[in-house]
Amino acid sequence: MQQQSNKYASLAWPEVDLIGFDTETTGKYPLSAEVCELAAVKWRGGQIVDTFQTLLKPSKPMASEVIAIHGITNEMVETAPKMEAKIGEFREFIRGGLVVAHHAPFDLGFISLEFEKHGIDLPLEPALCSSLLARRLFPESENHRLQTLVGFFDIERGQAHRALDDARACLEVTFRCLRKTGESAALVEAFAAQGGALHWQRFSIRELEAMNPVARILIQAMREEKVIEMCYGAGSTSGEKRRVHPLGLVRSLDGDYIVAYGEKDQRSKRYQIEKISAAEIV
């Protein structure tokens, strides 16, 4: 991974294929939610050269609160292809380019899981995050949500929370950020601005399962929708067993964690995986 980052770091950003992409999902977390729309926009040599967009049929109906966010209804995806029919096509679309997404760890987490689920190797090329770049390079923006930045940069507005328009907007925000580093600056400047290159492997669920026995149990519980009993080394009841309902797992740059509903305190919260000393499926 480091070798691949070094390969791209020395290149001027206008020399690289940049691919803005976005996912719309049925929930917040990989494993417990699915992608219902996937889109990407490919830029090469100063112009858009190709686009990719598809609705995807999830395995379960979407909840009304999710539909209210992106406007994709269960009726719209009823005849859409399943992920297995499109994930290989998407992999070919991004091959050889650097992907960029807004809040990229979210999208990389969902798509890394799908690549692994369908036996597709994770890309070796590093990724960029337009949110991280904008926070560092344009701190004067009111906030760094995509739609706020669209207004801040006076970018043509599309339909918010639809994958293709958000992918285009993300790419335009990224161009504003890259130009701030220099009209022909090396990508090393962009990687430094966002805190380092993002690697697909960092969001691998398969790797987490292989190297962490506790995580393996947590992932199994989420896949099977089971309750777990675990010992957590933090909080007011540190070290005591607690029974929780896992809602999702996130591989974060700040540390991997699960979100779970605790039976004792009757609320959902984050639990850092490194602080879970033991877990078993109830």
What's the arrangement of secondary structure elements?
Layout lengths: L1 H8 L8 E8 L9 E10 L2 E9 L8 H7 L3 H4 L5 H12 L3 E4 L2 H14 L10 E2 H8 L8 H7 L10 H19 L5 H7 L11 H7 L1 H12 L3 E5 L8 E10 L6 E6 L4 E6 L3 E6 L1
Parallel strand pairs: 1-4, 4-5
Antiparallel strand pairs: 1-2, 2-3, 6-7, 6-10, 7-8, 8-9
How does this model look, in words?
The protein is an alpha+beta fold. The longest helix is centred in the middle third of the chain and has 19 residues, at about 165-180. The chain has helices spanning about 1-10, 65-70, 75, 85-95, 105-115, 130-135, 145-150, 165-180, 185-195, 205-210, 215-225; strands at about 20-25, 35-45, 45-55, 100, 130, 230, 240-250, 255-260, 265-270, 275-280. The model has no long low-confidence stretch (mean pLDDT about 95). It has a five-stranded mixed β-sheet with strand order 3-2-1-4-5. Strands 9-8-7-6-10 form a five-stranded antiparallel β-sheet, with helices on one face. About 35% of the residues lie in helices and about 25% in strands.
